[in-house]
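Hey Z.,

So I finally got round to the adenosine-5'-diphosphate thing we talked about over coffee. Here's the setup:
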Amino acid sequence: MKIIMLGAPGAGKGTQAKKIAAKYEIPHISTGDIFRANIKNGTELGKKAKTYMDQGLLVPDELVVDLVVDRVNQDDCTKGYVLDGFPRTIPQAEALDKALESMDQKMDYAIDINVPDENIVNRMSGRRACVDCGATYHIVHAPTKEEGICDNCGGELILRDDDKPETVQKRLAVYHEQTQPLIDYYTEKGILKTVDGTVDLEDVFKAITGILGE
Ligand code: ADP
Ligand code: AMP
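And the result:
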């Protein structure tokens, strides 16, 4: 099963993608996580990506597409995968479709998690990310057992620089301009499914499993 998660920054793509990956036993591929790991490791790709990410801008398509196409060609992806944060532009979606076509494959679902802009800034200011393993929480909606400490690995939790309100506004503007057109793109392909992302995260997951099947 090959799935794309769509939605504004902070809509809950990562939260739901992790749950989908665990339930359906497929890899969770997050381009944001890949870039943050590269930044942490000080790679050339990380250095380039950081200059865009810090400003709330998208990393250029040519730095993203090959990376994802290589990743979905790895052995653990034969049963499928859930893409989180990719594609984010029409050229990325077209490049992915072309790559899949050349392997005689196609995407099964594009799940759009719908959350209005008003809710997003609040969500993002409450998001906390682990500096060590990248796990994400929310101070109200998905708190850790011990404040400021990652449940997963015991690492320190931080507010990501790009989750600060001024950068979130920029990211939302970029989302509407460059990523939202993908909703029409996947509607035309006949694979778009929309879920309400404003409800409790377990209820969002129920709506998603209702689409994907038990
Ligand atoms: P994205 O991957 O789309 O940027 P995340 O999955 O990281 O978004 O979610 C953004 C923040 O909102 C996180 O702190 C997460 O814990 C929280 N969150 C996710 N889904 C919900 C929900 N349905 N209700 C309330 N908060 C949520
Ligand atoms: P995310 O963790 O998915 O919110 O991504 C964080 C940041 O990484 C984004 O704001 C972009 O700067 C960058 N990024 C992640 N995925 C992509 C992508 N597919 N195309 C361009 N930039 C991306």
